[in-house]
Amino acid sequence: MLCKVTKSYFANIILVCTLLVFFVTSTLLYVCQLLIRQQELSSRLSDYDVAITTLSGTLSARVTAFSDFFFPIFNNSDAYDALCELYRSPNGDISAEASETLLSTLHSLCSADHYCCGLLLLTRSGLLYQYDIRYGTLMPIKLTRTIFRFTPYKLQLLTDDQICNLSSALEKPAEHLYGLSGTIFRSGEDTVSNLGYLIVLYSADEFTSALNESGLTDTALFSIRNSAGELLYSSDGSPGGEPVTIVEKNRIPVMISGKKYYISTLIHPKYQYSVTYQFPESSLKTSYLQNILLLVGIGIALSCILLYSVVLRSANHRVNNIRQGMALVGHNNLSYRMPVPRSNDEFTSIIQSFNHMCDELQRNIENTYLFEISQRKAELYAMQTSINPHFLYNALEQIRVQILQGKNEDATQMLLLLSKMYRYQTKRDLFISIGEECAQAENLVNLYSYRFADCDYEFDVENSLRKYGIPKNILQPLIENCFVHGFSPSSTGNLILISICASRQGEDVRLLFTIENNGAALLPEKFTYLSEKLQQPVLTGTETNGFALSNVNSRLKLTFGESASLKLSPGRDGSGFLVSFQIPPLLPEQLTEKLQNAISPASGDE
Question: How far is CA 458 from CA 441, 483, 493, 498, 572, in A?
Answer without folding.
Answer: 11, 15, 13, 6, 16
